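Lay summary. Proteins are chains of building blocks that fold into shapes, and those shapes determine what they do. In this project we predict the shape from the chain. Here is one chain we studied, written as its sequence of building blocks.
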Amino acid sequence: MVVVLDTVSRPRHPEKAHRPDAPLLKKPDWIRVRAPVSKGYADTKAIVQANGLHTVCEEAGCPNIGECWDKKHATFMIMGDTCTRACAFCNVKTGLPGALDPHEPEHVGQATAKLDLSHIVITSVDRDDLADGGAEHFAQTIRAIRAHAPATTIEILTPDFLRKPGAIEHVVDAKPDVFNHNLETVPSKYLTVRPGARYFHSIRLLQMVKERDPQMFTKSGIMVGLGEERNEVLQVMDDLRAADVDFLTIGQYLQPTRKHHAVERFIPPDEFKSYEAIAYAKGFLMVSASPLTRSSHHAGEDFAKLRAARAAKR
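And here is the predicted shape, written in a compact code that computers can read:
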């Protein structure tokens, strides 16, 4: 069982990003998913609620929730359900978060053991209100999982810890198996899509992980359909490979509500296949590129493939 716990330029059409009266693009057949109704989905929802856990599956409105929860896969989100930033693509609520729950790392560790999880993914909201951005809470959660479930492999999907000295190093030293930090989009879209972040800081973060622990797997992902150009996506691939990132994910952006950034285009499956082929040619060990690809989708299976790919390369 897996639980999938600087330089920016203005966009070409800034008036389209948040206009609530803009017509919505019709979803093509390849992006449609069935509503979750299975018994497995209901069982997973009951487990999440019984343990008082937050999941990014619910908070961010992930389209894969039906498939993943049917298999008892979920993405756990620590440090509360309120983010200090307001990214234009994200459906997690924004505001002033409450105090950290000091018992949360232990609860996650206990739940991991109770559910006999082989792989767990932990993510979080941005906590710019904390002196370390929540780095110690991540580290405590990793250590708690190791204590309660030593055989479980751990993947983390972190915020950028912007202007929090020592935070990245502290999390790396806790020894997760996979360190994931998403770029989300191309540099030219940061001003409207990810205004609280800096593209080259995120690239540098991923590079610092490898410098601190060369054996740790690193991972990053972007969304497409936000108005980016193809050559911009290819440049992101080059920037990530320059930082020695192992695993790239590319998925279709879906607009959560009318107040969020508009979908500029639905990318057809054959273009995703092209991106996948190019990314492998550029040297990534693993690539997942499809309309419904998300950072934590099939994380356990992908981690096994990632380890096998590294072993085959040696």
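What the prediction tells us: The chain has one domain: 33-313.
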